[in-house]
Structure formats: structure tokens, C-alpha cells
Amino acid sequence: MIQIENVSLVRGGAKILSDVSLHIPEKGLVAMVGPNGAGKSSLLSLIGRLQPLQSGRISVAGLPVDATPSRELAKILAILRQDPAPASRLKVRELVGFGRFPHSRGRLTAEDRAVVDAALADFALTALADRFVETLSGGQRQRALVAMALAQDTPVLLLDEPLNNLDMPNARDLMRRLRRVVDERGRTVLAVLHDLNHAAAYADRIVAMKDGGVAADGSPRDLLTPDMLESVFGHRMRVAEIDGAPVVLHHL
Ligand SMILES: Nc1ncnc2c1ncn2[C@@H]1O[C@H](COP(=O)(O)OP(=O)(O)OP(=O)(O)O)[C@@H](O)[C@H]1O
Ligand SMILES: [Mg+2]
């Protein structure tokens, strides 16, 4: 579904990504982890064409991202940025409605409005629908941004730190919702996560990035070992097992 071949990126004279190749098949939840500055957001922004590809190839659903019209790409791929530009004078319902633009060209149909209403309800935003986005709390705003990305209803979702600002129940709810869109609707989700335990509990696969490259790639069970975590994060962590799944004790 997402094919990345020999992608490198240089910014300000520094090598940000070095010859990254990665294949993400259809239908699955892939967590991307790695230390600050590893290149996670840079790679996502190249897949989502938020910045131009300098070298290598990236295709999504067989379409080369650098040669596909934006409108067409927006029907295949939704991207949640790590630090979206603040939405000014926009109500929550309008923000979530933006997710429908690739489908409706700006004039929402009854079906679009139904999708928006469902997304608002799913993210407990119904009571906030007529509030201006800038008046929301950090976690409420994050929920609205994620709701917008999901309302786009694309086969591929790229989410850069979707759990930012979410409290524990909301983080768990979102991970469960992502799991459901994968299992019930066959979506392909690539999500950057800093919480290794959310990755362990919900992802099919973890891709660990370090220094602009893929340092490790595998199932949560294979990947989340003290040695692997130390080599990726430079910090030794303990790993326990609860109900057969790895749990990382990063604070001990
Ligand atoms: N426009 C730019 N000019 C110069 N360097 C940049 C630019 N954008 C990103 N970088 C550098 O590229 C590296 C990778 O950044 P990136 O945002 O991809 O990291 P990340 O893995 O997403 O980190 P984080 O977990 O902190 O979000 C960092 O060292 C960053 O400073
Ligand atoms: Mg980032």
C-alpha cells in the first residue's frame, strides 16, 4: 500500500533521511517509534507530500506521490501533522468538515454532513461542535484534528503523534478506534507514537527509526526487548510481560 524506496532527504546541509526503504502492506496498524529528531515526521511529510521528494521513490496505492494530483491523493491519503497550523475563526464542525472537501469540493452533501456528525459523536465533540477551535483545550483540539483526518475516509491514514495532548482514556479510545478502522474497514494506518506501550498493545508492527534510517522493524514482541530499545533510544529499559504482551517500563 505504501512503498518507499531509497528515499534520502537533505535539509539545511544536513542529512535528515538516508536511503530509507520500507513497504507497508494494505490493512494494518504500523507504529513508527524512535527518538526525537530521528526523522519520523520528515518521512511522513514526504509520504503525504507536505514537502517535495528529493531522491528515491514513494508510491501510495500504486500512485507515485510526486506525480499524482493533490485532489486524487487526498482521496487516498489523510495526514495528521504533528504541529498543525492553528485554525483561526473556525468552528469545530467546520474543521471536521474540511475532511470531506476532497469528496465534496467544498459543498457538503447530506452524506458528508452525516459523516461529520458521526465523527463529532465518535470523538465526543458533539457538544463542542459550534465552539471556535482556538477556544478548545489541547486535548479537545487534538480530538477535533483526528476527527477531521478520519472524516476524510481514506484507505491510508498517516498520523504524526495522534496521542499528543490526550488523557489516558482518550488515548486508549483513539487507539481502539484506529484498530477498528483497520480490522473492520481494511484501512492502512501509519502512526508515529512515543508511547511504546500503546504501540505494543495495538500495532501489528513497529518500525523504529534512528538517525534518519530504519533501525528495527518487526512485531511488538520481537522489537520490544531491552537490547533493541537500548540500541534505538540509547537508554536501557525493562520489559515485562502482562497477559502475553510486552510492557515497557521506561521509568525504572
Ligand atoms: N526544515 C528543516 N531544516 C533543517 N533541519 C530540519 C528541518 N526539518 C527537520 N529538520 C531536522 O531533521 C531531523 C529530523 O526531524 P523530524 O521532525 O523528522 O524528527 P522526528 O523523528 O519527527 O522527531 P520528534 O520525535 O521530535 O518529532 C531533526 O534533526 C530536525 O532538526
Ligand atoms: Mg516528529
TrEMBL record:
Checking InterPro entries in the record gives:
AAA+_ATPase (IPR003593), ABC_transporter-like_ATP-bd (IPR003439), ABC_transporter-like_CS (IPR017871), P-loop_NTPase (IPR027417), Siderophore_ABC-ATPase (IPR051535)
SUPFAM superfamilies, from UniProt?
P-loop containing nucleoside triphosphate hydrolases
- Per its UniProt record, what CDD domains does this chain match? ABC_Iron-Siderophores_B12_Hemin (cd03214)
Which keywords are on file for this protein? ATP-binding, Cell membrane, Ion transport, Iron, Iron transport, Membrane, Nucleotide-binding, Transport
Q: Name one Pfam family in it.
A: ABC_tran
A GO term for molecular function: ATP binding
Mind telling me which GO cellular component terms the entry cites?
Answer: plasma membrane
Q: Where does the ABC transporter domain start and stop, copy by copy?
A: 2-236
- Main location, first listed in the record: membrane
What is the designated name of this protein?
Iron complex transport system ATP-binding protein
| Source species of the chain | Hansschlegelia beijingensis
Q: What is the lineage of its organism?
A: Bacteria, Pseudomonadati, Pseudomonadota, Alphaproteobacteria, Hyphomicrobiales
